[in-house]
Amino acid sequence: MRKFKSLTLIAFTALAVAGCSSSGKEVEDGTEQELYGKSQTYLQDGDYSQAIRYLEAVKNRFPGTSYSEQTQLNLIYAYYKSQDYTKTLVTADRFIQQFPNSQNLDYVLYMTGLTNFALGENFFQDFFGVDRATRESTSIKAAFANFQTLVQHFPNSAYAQDALARMAYIKASLARHELSIAKFYAKRDAHVAVANRVVGMLQQYSDTQATLDALPLMKEAYEKMNLTHLANQTESLIQANQGKRFADVEKPAEPNLTVPQK
After folding, report:
1. pTM of the model
2. Where in the numbering of this chain does the Outer membrane lipoprotein BamD-like domain appear (predicted)?
3. 153-178 pLDDT, tens digit each
4. DSSP string, the chain
């Protein structure tokens, strides 16, 4: 389907990766059915490293068979669960190229979004209580694009509601990220940069608390540049939103994932 032509670019927005090979460990000889059956047993037991070994063996030894599509769906899941996010994105990209008409494209998009979402997380930021929104945001922007594509093309997907919730969380996080940058510029009297940043927030994240909190910074920047008309317009906007507050957006819980069956 032509509309998925650019999805490979979305999958790799956060991380450019070279082609990857299998684990290098040999698995015993067996038929496609035998190897696939063993992979399923390991997958159900949560032994993802072993599941990956057998799934890669099926993929490499028996390309283009009836198991190919399901094998790659299982690999996407197994790599994600083992937190090998690079190979999750590589496998998702390969799937989109090989199976552009699959009925499970929504799942692959969703898993790509979850992967980029996870790449935007950091354990140490969690541990030390650092707000992720103040950190570099490339991965989280890629996740937003993945979820947005999913919702636009598959609005009735079983994954659409969670995708929307994650988009709302990401939008609030990105707005806080922009607010932190605007504050940084304000401390350095970079008035033009402050104003431009907040204008961008109004265009992209108008329905977030961070954008409301940024308006006084923009007003002050205009005042210091003697742009009285723009400062007055900003004050009118502040007054129009006086007392308004957007609810905090909680991070969605980790979903209870299962692999769709072809």
Report:
1. 0.83
2. 29-236
3. 999 999 999 999 999 999 999 999 89
4. -GGGTTHHHHHTSS---------S-------HHHHHHHHHHHHHHT-HHHHHHHHHHHHHHSTTSTTHHHHHHHHHHHHHHTT-HHHHHHHHHHHHHH-TT-TTHHHHHHHHHHHHHHHT--HHHHHHT--GGGS--HHHHHHHHHHHHHHHH-TTSTTHHHHHHHHHHHHHHHHHHHHHHHHHHHHTT-HHHHHHHHHHHHHH-TTSHHHHHHHHHHHHHHHHTT-HHHHHHHHHHHHHTTT--PPP-PPPPPP---PPP-
